[in-house]
Amino acid sequence: MNFPLPHELRALTPNIHAWLPDGHATWGLANCVLVTGRRGTDGPATALLVDTPYTAGMTRHLQDLVAGLPGAPVVRTVVNTHGNGDHSYGNGLFPGAEIIATEANGEHLCAEPEPAVLAGLVAAADPATVLGAYMKRHFARYGDFGVTSPTHPTRTFSGELDLDVGGSAVRLIEVGPAHTAGDLIVHLPEEGVVCAGDVVFHEDHPVHWAGPLESVHRACERILACGPRIVVPGHGLVMTPQEVRVYADYLLDLREAIHRGHAAGRPLPVLAAELIAADPHPRWGLTERMAILAAVEYRALDGAQDRADLVALVGFAAGFAARESAEESTPESGEPAGSVTAGG
Ligand SMILES: [Zn+2]
Q: Can you give the residue ranges of the Metallo-beta-lactamase domain (predicted)?
């Protein structure tokens, strides 16, 4: 692993610890949250882990940190907020734990590449192509992930599910389709904490595979309706509810701009370029993801019924990233480099 990982878990409350990799402008460095039982026991404390890391190595690193906490908590339950690999490839390193996700998450898992397939794609990617260079840049650091096939949930639900983790109340709330077909958020009502999964990103432009943006916005409203003090996004630092509100408003503005473009008959690549040029949050990373948001929204507006090709969507975004970096390196030339390689 050629990137820094957190060397400690951050205590959000005495029984909630967050693993927050510094993942600004990266793909794959997702947050995990450990909820430990509040009830005292003679033996090790019972714990629930929200999401597992992308690679086996990262997961073992997290497990070492958990084992070092007072009471050496044992993870008996894993919750996957959704089915993207950066939140679930580590599932298999918790043998015997119950793994919970929504029933609808199964729909997304059909489209999610298995670790061995993704590792093969990255290894075989041609860095001379726009998509290949982007894949190498963002995913080669994870090597072969240390796992070949995913470990799927052992228990699913729809709607809401209340759990008792050694005396700590945990409520799972289905909010998908939003980021994917089967998202859930984790509400810890006694502590005022919500784990938002990838419904919310902090200071990176979001990517949403299922959408449409109206649904993602509704999921943000559900988070805020929990009245949290702290929101842990899927990636980036913990947030205040006010920051989630700014993010939710941004999604609505973006939705309006995309719908306007669609109604005016603007071709998708043209609209995506315009959105990126008018980026209202230039400090946020991965601006090119706005192209994916536009492509997914266009699919919804066009009534697309087939399953979205996630790799093609990344390829579409990669064209804009190549253009941006070329403009940064040659500010005088106004010639965009790279080309759009795939449509949504
Ligand atoms: Zn993620």
A: 29-235
- Give the structural domain span for 321: 264-344
> Could you give the CA distance from residue 286 to residue 289 in angstroms, rounded to a whole number?
6
Q: What is the pLDDT of residue 343?
A: 32
How far apart are the C-alpha atoms of 170 and 182, rounded to whole Å? 18
User: Which range has the worst mean pLDDT, 149-163, 193-207, 325-339?
Assistant: 325-339
- How far, in Å, CA of 122 to CA of 321, rounded? 17
Ligand 1 centroid distance, CA of 84 (Å): 6
- Does residue 290 sit in the same domain as residue 318? yes
Question: Based on the domain organization, do 213 and 80 belong to the same domain?
Answer: yes
CA of 179 to the centre of ligand 1 (A): 9
242, 257, 272: which is the final residue of a domain? 257
Mark which of 212, 232, 257 sits at the end of a domain: 257
Query: How far apart are the CA of 335 and the centre of ligand 1, in A?
Result: 33
Kindly state the tokens that stand for 311: 């790799």
Q: What is the pLDDT of residues 22-69, one digit of tens each?
A: 889 999 999 999 999 987 777 889 999 999 999 999 999 999 999 999
